[in-house]
Amino acid sequence: MVRQTRKNSLVGLAYIGPALLFVLVFTVYPLVQMAWMSLHNWSLITPPRWVGFDNYTRAFDDRQFWVSFGFTLEYTLIITPILIVGGYLLALLLARNSPVRRLTRTVVFTPVVIGLGVSSLLWYWLFSTDFGFVNKALQALGVIGDPVVWLGVDADRSNLAIIASVVWKVIGFGMILFVGAIQAIPTDVTEASLVDGANARQRVTRIVLPLTLRTVLLVTLLSVIGSLLAFDQFYIMTAGQPQNETATSVFFVYLNSFPYLKLGYGAALSMILALTILAFTVVQLLLTRRSHE
């Protein structure tokens, strides 16, 4: 019996071995290396020099970093409800299986498979001042007279344009997860609610939403993490302009690590951001467990 148990353990370890090796090589080792780098003054052209926690002390006194961190939080607080509420509403409309709804789900989900860099370039062209489709369409509709400079001049306008591009790119991901969760609700539950005379609003608020709450929390977690790590769309569409007002935390880490050749300081900033995301993830997992109980 003991031999059989040991054999099963070895077989299980053999199955998970490749995945475990992948995590160790591409996740754990880089994190350890980054933590070690954060304790050094290290550029790309000079040997590393031990400085202890000086990089972290400097980070907490760096006003520009906290400005970029605050902008990232603001962006996260704006875009996350849009993605969650919009994705859920689309899922409620498209959850039933019919040819039209299946086609619509496919159309909405298609941008998800496009790379974020490619979609950012697409929207950079769409928001172009001189020949962009957005200005041409708004002028044709009589909404604006002269072309609007969407990107790089006004921070709020740039942020609005980027949010529009990300919603187009990402909202289909949450929609598909919500559709799966809604379709997994047992039919006898919904049929019983119909027999009891529940209207559409009552079915959504008292049956569908509580039974899909774990999926809502999961999508919220993924959305927040993705927003806190936002880089590609801001780098491509605004490059932090105007005057670094649209520079996210990751963008600021990139500037310090490579253009400014401060790998150690950039690693310290990355560790602070990683710990922030870890704290939020722990809170979210606790909420998910509580909702399950």
Brief summary of the model shown:
With 293 residues, the protein is an all-alpha fold. It is 74% helix and 1% strand. The protein is flat.
Topology:
Blueprint: H1 2-37, E1 40-41, E2 49-50, H2 54-60, H3 63-94, H4 99-109, H5 116-126, H6 133-140, H7 155-183, H8 187-195, H9 200-211, H10 213-228, H11 232-237, H12 249-257, H13 263-292
Antiparallel strand pairs: 1-2
Helix pairs in contact: 2-13, 3-7, 3-10, 5-7, 10-13, 12-13
Task: Describe this structure as you would to a colleague.
It is built from 13 helices and two strands. The longest helix has 36 residues, at 2-37. It is mostly helical and 293 residues long. The model has no long low-confidence stretch (mean pLDDT 88). It has a two-stranded antiparallel sheet. The protein has helices spanning 2-37, 54-60, 63-94, 99-109, 116-126, 133-140, 155-183, 187-195, 200-211, 213-228, 232-237, 249-257, 263-292; strands at 40-41, 49-50.
Spell out the key features of this protein:
13 helices; 293 residues; flat; mainly alpha; 2 strands; 74% helix; two-stranded antiparallel sheet
Give the averaged pLDDT, no decimals. Answer: 88
Strand ordering within the main sheet: 1-2
User: Structural class per helix/strand content?
Assistant: mainly alpha
Amount of beta strand:
under 5%
Rg calculated over all Cα atoms: 24 Å
Distance between the termini: 35 Å
Q: How would a textbook summarize the main sheet?
A: 2 strands, antiparallel
Estimated helix fraction: over 70%
What is the overall shape?
Answer: flat
**Count of DSSP strands:** 2
Count of alpha/pi helices:
13
**Spans of 5+ residues with little confidence (pLDDT < 50)?**
none
Return the string of H and E elements.
HEEHHHHHHHHHHHH
